[in-house]
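This protein record is not my work; I was only asked to verify it. Where you disagree with what is written, explain briefly why. This is what I was given:
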Amino acid sequence: MAVTREEDTPRAAFTRLTWRINLVVVVALVALSLFAWHNTIEQANSMSGMVMGLGQIGSRVQGSMSASLFLTMWVTMMAAMMLPTVAPMVLAHLAVARQRGDGALSTIAFIAGYLLVWSVIGVIPLFAYWGFAQLSDDAAQSHWLPALAGTILIVAGAYQFTGWKQICLDKCQSPFAFVAMHDFGSGARSALRAGVVHGAYCLGCCWALMAVLVVVGLMNLFWMASIFVLFFVEKHWKHGIVVAKIAGGTLMALGAAVIALPALLALISQ
């Protein structure tokens, strides 16, 4: 399945299979995402009074969440936010898999490998949650808390301008090149491995914006929806890197503003 660099775009992934197969795949991914969003919204509402981010310290009560509960919440969030963004990659993998005689199980394994990466990385926000869950309300009046929050926003924004961001975004925007370069053979095991690799590139593309949730609240629905839209546009639009840099500049300015005006931290975390 020869595809030139110019032709290797997210949109091209929709041209290699019949419209019925495209529809089934997209509907399945969107349905899983909507189900995950439904559960995420319910979880967010049930935790609306709990501190889930640095900016919520002092305005909400400190809660306690086990590792299993937190990671279940995290995996649900990732399925909600990320599954629609990988539709072109899934279609490209399915097209190649069908060409060499593999069934749909291979592509399901690919998706599982992708989600595995985002599930494992949930340990980092878990430790972040356990860390700020130990802080007293007095921390909200400190100078270091808005400085820390602002620094996280600045670092997250600065990453959007780095070469690593460009490399990882290029991988996400070139589905057929990725599948060709990371073809570990046929079968579910190889597809699982390819899914893990793609998950790692996706993580490299998206981790900085995810880190914003540590500041504004891990279950902040407004920010989650906004970040999801950014991910979708970055990965599917040919000028996605421009959008990434605009978002990065905005985050850096917001971080500087939070450091200069500490009261802003609570405002953006409501």
Remarks:
- DSSP finds twelve helices and no strands in the chain.
- The mean pLDDT is 94.
- The first helix runs from residue 19 to 46.
- Residues 11-268 form one domain.
